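Annotators were shown the component list below and the corresponding predicted structure, then asked to write short factual statements about the assembly.
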Amino acid sequence: MSILHDDDYILAADRRPLSALYSRNARAVIERGFRVIKSQNWIVLVSGFFEPVFYLLSMGIGLGQLVGSVQGPNGAPISYAAYIAPALLAVSAMNGAIYDSTWNIFFKMHFGKLYQSMLYTSLGPFDIAVGEIFMALFRGFLYALGFTGVMAVMGLITTPWALLLVPASVMVAFGFASFGMAITSYMKTFQQMDIITFVMLPMFLFSATFYPLTVYPEPVQWLVQALPLWHGVELMREISTGAFSLVTLLHLLYYVVMVLVGLAFTTRRLRALFLR
Amino acid sequence: MVASVRPEGAPVISAQDLVKTYGDVNAVDGISFAIPAGESFGLLGPNGAGKSTTMRMIGGVSQRTAGQLNIMGLDPEQQGPEVRAHLGVVPQQDNLDEELRVRENLIIYGRYFGLSRSYLSQRADELLEFAQLQDKAKARVDSLSGGMKRRLTIARSLINDPKILLLDEPTTGLDPQARHVLWDRLFRLKEQGVTLVLTTHYMDEAEQLCDRLIVVDKGRIMAEGSPAQLIRKHSSREVLELRFGTDRNVAVAERLDGTGDRIEVLPDRVLVYSDNGEESLEAIRGRGFHPITSLVRRASLEDVFLRLTGRSLVD
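Structure shown to annotators:
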């Protein structure tokens, strides 16, 4: 190492926008994420994947026997399993993103002190937010990919449009991941973490996942339509049958907004928590 | 890019009237100091004095309530990532990445600075040697002893070849061997021109390592100077420690006036501050007092510290 002199102690200001928050190095956070996954137990990683698969098997095959065929998004009748499968795919993507961006982040914030040590390097809160959200999104992507495979094996994929299911799932995962981290940042105890489950479970069951929205009275319909999962469910359903309309764009737009707001929200929270 | 505003020879860290308020508590209450390049600067003070908060503000991870702060020409609040790129930080509590192995901790930490993998691979091996952890490269972090974790944290702080190293109580919890190894390593960094800023409440550490220091209490600077200057100014040259038995200390001390510059009574002993301890002891014996034990020692920074910040416990 060379010896430092007085004139080595001069820094140039970085005048790029957001330079106090972002150093264009989210990939380092992602690299860490993959190193950890590599050394981790794979069972832990995939545990959340099975929940929607079990629902598909029990409801789709079991309950499907009683239900028979139902009306699909484009009006044509489809099997009950084919009706709920895309909805469960959205749930799968959501679960992946949520498991990673809530419990994992909770531990890193409160026990691992990971973000404190990261923020003492040249990383800014935005790098961390992007990197961690990417990891959650990656988990959502893995779950969605697996679930799409299960759908294919069960013969529930009938159109080439179904190829779009995976990128659409990533969008759904992205939306949930970017919000999950910000929400988790408010949680201080394990008990509070239960609130997340308390919100997620009814959203999963009531977002027109297992039956059409029209069963609800109108005010309830409005409420359900405001929830993010409903947009994911509808988006997937429309893709799986190739029944696109302007509403499809609206669903996508919902997620674009969710991602942007979530990213800004998370960065703000990381800043408030660790750069006080 | 805009050139830095730091003129040649100006301090690399300068703080003007720094204030940090949490709720209605002033953790840091108007601190000013300037540190030239290559200096080893210490912040001394009891727990809760505001040392760590000051360190956090220098690192730009704590927003100041008021005052000015300039690190190598930049404001760490505005230019956090750029300033921290040249900073090494050893926090008070080790915050190693327990999900990564020992060597990975160094490599990934270096990646946070945007350093290349090939550079880091070599640098990580050098630092493992520096920290005497070569055999532990693949070990899990939670299998390391406290001293090893501390050494790894310090090695990690050097991954980016920092110009300024911030050390928050670097040797707390280390055994004497490990402390001496660490002092040696820090001294070598100082020889390379690295500016060291450290907090400590080990007075021997401050005397060993610091060119200059400030004594901080309740968020304010109580004294400033080199260790020798501070001892000269706030203490006598020698201290005579006498034990007369806990029940007699107070009574005897009242009758020792004039045998030293200043007399302090503690529950277990009497301290006589004097420029010549042996002479004071003779004088005391001459008055007919014979202590159970007596000890003449040189005054240390610890005497200065206790004088300035008091003896009561701070939580």
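Statements collected:
1. Chain B touches chain A through 55 residues (CB under 8 Å).
2. Chain B is about 35% helix and 25% strand.
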